[in-house]
Amino acid sequence: MKKIFKLSLYILATFSLVTMFYSCTDESKFANPATYALERGGFAQFQEGVAPNVVSFVDPSTAGFTRTIEDANNNLESYSLDFTATFANGTTQTVEDYFSTDTFPATLNVTAENIAAALGKEISELDFGDNFQFIAKAVRNDGTIFSGSAPGLNDDGSVTTGGTEANLLLPVYRNAMNFDFTFACPAFTPEDFVGTWNVDALGFATFFGETQTTREIIAGPGENQITIVGGEYPTAGGAVDDLILTFDASGIVTAVNEDGFAFGPGNNAGLTPNTYLLENGLLLPCVNKINLTMNFSPFSANPHPFELSR
């Protein structure tokens, strides 16, 4: 299994390098570039690093970040950004053309102040836990438009939606086509999480026959750690282990107990026991939210949400 898994990673990495900076577009230009008429797509990337996952909102007047955007294939006519704000109270609002440029490199300066202005709000109306998802539109010098989402395809291979291959949206490419950040909570401790939490989302819960809709959280066992008692599937996972989260000062989950059973012997699905694997996570105790994307190791092709609130 390990040899097969390593081989798969090698093939994937080779394919990613071969197709680097190629995007797909509408049927009027060419069909699915994985099978026909490869062309260099329009692709914008950050000159250094990636956009941050979280931004401190303790001092709203300084909340934000700056990045330089460059034309990866030297073929862009213009670049623009839309964003969707998902507020801590659950409501959403979309802003078109938050930023645009027709010269490269270009400086993108994101601040709480200009976000609030674009939303038609006062900065005081923004809050901890607010999330902002940015989607770019890159126009190639022949007028072809590439959007910052993975393409959907018709049966004949032509593109229906999206315009950037999914592998190019990974952080390794410093992509400026699709990114998001959340206003992080003020400083907190593991004790701030102690208590009963509701499960708002849990991937594969129906498949496993999971019925428990709450989880108890305790502090520890170590510094900057909390424990979700019973883990993801306490009633359906067989001999499961608790899920231990390690987090940094901004609330980003940096690790989980990867040796713990996500679903163990005797699980309701009758599957081989499997262990925890973290994709990403963010803790927001000031707005009573825990947002995790988990996976199964070594069956790592099944990322799924595990989200809690109280």
Task: Characterize the structure shown.
The protein is mostly beta strands and 310 residues long. It contains three helices and 20 strands. The protein has a nine-stranded antiparallel beta sheet, with no helix packed on it. Strands 2, 4, 5, 7, 8 and 11 form a six-stranded mixed beta sheet that branches. A hairpin with a 5-residue loop joins strand 15 and strand 16. The chain is globular. It starts with a helix and ends with a strand.
Provide a quick synopsis of the model.
The protein has helices spanning 2-18, 112-119, 205-208, and strands at 44-46, 54-56, 64-71, 76-86, 92-101, 106-111, 131-140, 145-147, 152-153, 159-161, 178-184, 195-202, 214-219, 225-228, 243-247, 253-256, 261-263, 274-284, 289-297, 304-309.
